[in-house]
């Protein structure tokens, strides 16, 4: 079994969401969490890292850092990997797939970097286990070699599927918002679950579900598995205790009035399916309504939405007509606030609103602004 000493981990996050991810880790008790480009670094034992996998809402993956260093030649990469303590983590029968990424590095061949990394791990393992055969029939340890500039970082993924794979969204509508991005928007909106929340362009319901998870203290990864749970050298009983503690914290009775509307009946049918899959049927209300006709009874509402962006030229005018309905929506609901993510550079001008706060981030590959009004 792996000892309970501290190891270095990174939680990867989309550009612009590193600060959100850092704040999540700090709330989870990882006091040394430090934001870097595209990730947040923290130290933990393996049960602690599993708790991060279970509870992080905005992160994409949690990775164990095995080695880091400058590598300007393939030989330097080989030696860096071979000297990493893989045999302390991997059993002799570990399955070891290797992925790779290179950016502005002298070692620009991703395929060669993957092959060299795999060869170095195999040589390390053969030497450590005094064997010539590594069957790779056991649990998976996904290794990643990432080179940025002349610095290589070798990691092992604890997650398996990316953390946005919560398990409730098995149907996708047009231009879906990733679950991790939706969770981050709920955080950035400033909503704390103490007022009603409504998405007037709810689509397939991802924002609504992530908001309900937050209000109910539901761990985002509660109903899915992780690769680290199948690693024989990690204390399975400790991980199970952490999962059971998370189950006890989940309280759907804490969910306030959360609702969504959309003009598209097909999107709403998908939203209802996702809500059922998330175990939230009866906790979230969705209905068909044109934004121009939307009038809610609740007071002090947080309107949180990801409206269509009009990326195709033919859709731009239709989307701008929708944006112009945002100001009347706020005027019909005094004391409420509006939070919108959009890639449209002129959203404020078209909507006739001025944001009190903006955050630049990415929805997929689209550079966007998240604005609070």
Short description:
With 373 residues, the protein is of the alpha/beta class.
Order of helices and strands: EHEEHEHEHEEHEHHEHEEHHEHEE
Provide the CATH superfamily of the largest domain.
Answer: Vaccinia Virus protein VP39
The beta-strand count equals: 14
pLDDT average, as an integer?
95
Q: Considering DSSP H and I runs of 4 or more, what fraction of the residues is helical?
A: 25-40%
- Strand percentage lies at 15-25%
What would CATH call the class of the largest domain? Alpha Beta
Instruction: Going across the biggest sheet, name each strand in turn.
Output: 2-3-1-4-7-6-5
Give a written overview of the molecule.
Strands 2-3-1-4-7-6-5 form a 7-stranded mixed β-sheet. Strands 10-9-8-11-12-14-13 form a 7-stranded mixed β-sheet, with helices on one face. It has 2 domains: 151 residues, VC0802-like; 165 residues, Vaccinia Virus protein VP39 (Rossmann fold), CATH 3.40.50. Helices cover 32% and strands 22% of the residues. It is elongated and about 75 Å long. It has 373 residues and is α/β, with parallel strands linked by helices. The longest helix is centred in the N-terminal third of the chain and has 20 residues. The termini are far apart. The model has no long low-confidence stretch (mean pLDDT 95). Strand 13 and strand 14 form a beta hairpin. The protein contains 11 helices and 14 strands.
